[in-house]
Design brief:
- This is CobW/HypB/UreG nucleotide-binding domain-containing protein.
- The chain has about 425 residues and is an alpha/beta fold.
- It contains 14 helices and 18 strands.
- Strand 3, helix 1 and strand 4 form a beta-alpha-beta unit.
- Helix 2 packs across helix 14.
- The longest helix has 15 residues.
- It is globular and about 60 Å long.
């Protein structure tokens, strides 16, 4: 049957569209632009990057009225986005939460979609306790994003239908905090737009879409990880900011790591387990665990790659840039089992866990664990001088600046 409609006696064939994505903005684009557009037919979605979702289908039950792509809110919205995954969005989100709490405001965080299961059932997901992570059958990757905020007393929303999510979030929030997964654009119109850049990956702020759009549109640009990045990388990102987004206020910050059991690291042979997305499609060979191993004087970082089995070995084959670390991959039950077996097989004194969730909820290994945490911090005067930042246009005091910006937002939307 020919797919078309008749207007004034003439047949008009619908434009047939294939949406490329990874179960995130692709669904949001369909929901807000195409699903009720009579002139087009969306024939399907590609599912790149995320394993084990290739055969999933978008449910008809999620059809609804046409809406604009960046949705307005009745509450103030702060959007925290990035150039690439693994730049430090979660750290900056916590700083925004702290600033809002200082003003006595309640924050609800809305996370970019990670719908890897039953899409109709996952249309609107609300996480208030760690038990909700089990209730919604979340993957390791989802737990890495949600758990740290839940344990900080923040309600987290995610799902597929972000108009319905926004309506629920507004009912219990003074501030809606958009946490933009990977490097995607905000789904909600922000009153304050932040973009986190990584000087360990200079140039990515202009060469990776849509992260480059975040970088060009942000009100604030945060050049994070300055304490571990080369000065040349920091200066390159600052030069990009000046050239591409001169109106943005720019901050250079450190990403400070700490561990709960430093005695397990000093002088020991350690295994580094890292955030999965950062060290796979994020392109980084290592992450926070490797930084902590150096900071706390590990005698050796044991190379685990010869011990990878099953799904984890396939991950290494797909991402050969991964260094001597274990990406915490857990998109499926089999991946979690293979992750557990791979870690358990590595001869080491301790496992240094750099993934931001309690991995012991899903796996059990014989080695003792040291847990890495990290937080954004302002550079002191000596650090700024050592990195040659004087005169390059970076502003001091990200936390104080956020408090000032939020104060203006409360007044504007009150």
């Amino acid at each position: 049957m020919e797919n078309g409609s008749h207007v004034n006696g003439a047949a008009h064939r619908k434009e047939r569209i294939l949406i490329l994505g990874a179960a995130g903005r692709d669904y949001h684009l369909f929901n807000t632009k195409y699903r009720d557009e009579p002139s087009v037919e969306v024939v399907g979605f590609t599912h790149a990057q995320i394993p084990h979702i290739e055969s999933s289908r978008y449910p008809a039950a999620l059809a609804g009225p046409l809406r604009e792509g960046m949705l307005p809110s009745t509450k103030p919205v702060v959007a925290v986005t990035a150039v690439r995954t693994g730049c430090g969005k979660s750290q900056v989100c916590r700083l925004v939460i702290d600033a809002a709490r200082q003003a006595g405001k309640r924050v609800v965080l809305v996370r970019h979609p990670m719908p890897y299961g039953d899409l109709a059932a996952q249309a609107v997901q609300r996480f208030e306790s760690v038990a909700d992570l089990d209730k919604h059958h979340t993957t390791i990757e989802e737990r890495e994003e949600y758990e740290q905020h839940i344990t900080n007393g923040v309600v987290v929303y995610a799902g597929v239908d972000y108009a319905a999510i926004l309506k629920q979030a507004e009912a219990e929030a003074d501030l809606v905090l958009w946490d933009g997964g990977n490097n995607d654009l905000p789904f909600y119109k922000p009153d304050l737009w932040l973009c986190i850049a990584d000087p360990l990956r200079p140039g990515h702020e202009v060469s990776y879409y849509p992260g480059d759009v975040n970088f060009r549109c942000a009100d604030m640009i945060v050049v994070n990880k300055a304490n571990t990045a080369p000065a040349a990388g920091i200066q390159a990102v600052l030069a990009s900011a000046k050239a591409l987004n001169p109106r943005a206020e720019v901050f250079v910050t450190a990403s400070e790591v700490s561990v709960d059991c430093p005695d397990l690291i000093a002088g020991k042979r350690v295994l580094c387990v890292e955030d999965g997305p950062t060290t796979t499609h994020g392109g980084r060979p290592s992450g926070a665990a490797a930084v902590a191993a150096a900071k706390y004087a590990a005698a050796e970082v044991v190379d685990p790659r010869p011990y990878f089995v099953g799904e984890l070995k396939k991950t290494l084959d797909k991402y050969p840039h991964v260094g001597p670390v274990v990406p915490a991959m857990g998109y499926s039950e089999q991946q979690i089992l293979d992750l557990q077996a791979s870690i358990a097989a590595v001869p080491c004194d301790a496992v240094l866990v750099g993934t931001p969730h309690d991995i012991t909820q899903l796996i059990s290994v014989p080695q003792p664990l040291a847990v890495v945490t990290y937080a954004v911090a302002d550079l002191d005067e000596e650090q700024q001088q050592g990195l040659g930042l004087k005169g390059l246009g970076a502003s001091p005091g990200l936390g104080k600046a956020l408090e000032g910006r939020l104060a203006g937002m409360w007044t504007a939307k009150s």
